[in-house]
User: What shape does this take?
Amino acid sequence: MAMEIHQSAEDYLEAILMIKEKKGYVRSIDVANQLSVSKPSVSYATKRLRENGYITFNEDGMISLTESGMEIANKIYTRHKVLTDIFKALGVDDNIAAEDACKIEHNLSPETFDALCKYAKKNGLTTINV
Assistant: This one.
């Protein structure tokens, strides 16, 4: 039985996806650096994510997302990118826009996010396909 996905798990899955896109591979140390957490924290979190079927490790210790892990990571990462685009379009500094997107990407209802997406598309505020 899969655990209920918590915000921290979503953050880890999203970070793994972002690192994979940037570097082509993902190591625990990369996740620790991306999320500014300790190696033991990453070890604990990745163990739980693996036990719940969201990630796998290969023999070299590289982390990969499973299909269910990728689904969650994509959802959160898409929310992050769209919200960042909207905030930047409103004149918010790039770094602050990304930080604020991070803060609300997990807590926004699907209805509100869908409405924001429609608004952003209609007004040319994002190029992300949602």
